[in-house]
Fold this sequence. Notes:
Elements: E1 13-16, H1 22-33, E2 37-42, H2 48-55, H3 60-63, E3 64-68, H4 74-81, E4 86-89, H5 94-106, E5 111-115, H6 141-147, H7 150-169, E6 173-178, E7 180-182, H8 192-201, E8 215-217, H9 218-230, E9 236-240, H10 247-257, H11 282-286, H12 294-341
Parallel strand pairs: 1-2, 1-4, 2-3, 4-5, 5-6, 6-9, 7-8
GO molecular function, one term: oxidoreductase activity, acting on the CH-OH group of donors, NAD or NADP as acceptor
Protein name: NAD-dependent epimerase/dehydratase domain-containing protein
Keywords: NADP, Oxidoreductase
Amino acid sequence: MSSNTKAGGDGQVxxxxxxxxxxxxxxxxxxxxxxxxxxxxxxxxxxxxxxxHLEALEGAESRLRLFQIDLLDYDSIVAAVTGSSGRELxxxxxxxxxxxxTAAKExxxxxxxxxxxxxxxxxxxxxxxxxxKNEDCWTDVEYCKQNGLWYPLSKTLAEKAAWxxxxxxxxxxxxxxxxxxxxxxxPPALNASMLMLLRFLQGCTEIYENFFMGPVHVKxxxxxxxxxxxxxxxxxxxxxxxxxxxYGDFTAMVAELYPEYNVPRLPKDTQxxxxxxKDGSKKLMDLGLQFIPMEQIIKETVEKxxxxxKRIARDLENQAKTxxxxxxxxxxxxxxxxxxxxLPRLAF
Length: 348
């Protein structure tokens, strides 16, 4: 992939691991839209839930190749990375991260974009109380161990492993740290952030004290990956949120926009010590990313959820009709068989 800031891949090859997931699917879609050839990895090529939505994307027929890989299996990673000049790393575990980075280095990949998380930035209780959290802030590993916060711990250790590898091996790595990712879903399954919203609409009062720094639209997360890939001036970590905000801000807006759900009222300040700011993602803004505002994120997410629920209801209704037809025919056939068995048998 060329190292300039112009849009369009001109058929250049980029590999997206975790391509069937929520962020990965959007990333594949936008890369195809920009003219890239995409090598996307999935867990199981035979599982339509992982492949069908990707194969349906515009441009997929000619410029998308799917690979089945296990991030812990180095040889399977090499096959997917071969021929690509860029990497998009999703859902990393420490060993998987190092396997992918090793393959990228050995195959001469130009730049690796690692998808980390705000969970590698927070919880960070020792960060100065009067300073807005930014890319210099790291999750407190010991705090996570002491409190059993294994998700932020794994995200932090995986990102640190990536940076250590990049420094030792001279690999060009940049990182995107998304917040709570929401928006229209391309794959059939809900992601964790969408389940968070669904649980709230159902009355859950959890405040996610150690897991929230602000929402972000999934399309903006995908665009952030492309921007930091295409801009050679992009270096280091890139916080990716619409704004640094509290979960209480988010739920208050949900309640305002959708009063019919009668959602619980949560405290305004749900993340102790977290300072709010609209330009928390200034590095990405400086690269030209205009973030979709929170209100639009909520509306698109909730409306899409309604569509999905209607689709599920239709599927269940159709399944019920099919099942009823089957049992009706089965009962009819059984009745005929019983009548036939009661007929006198002919003796020969």
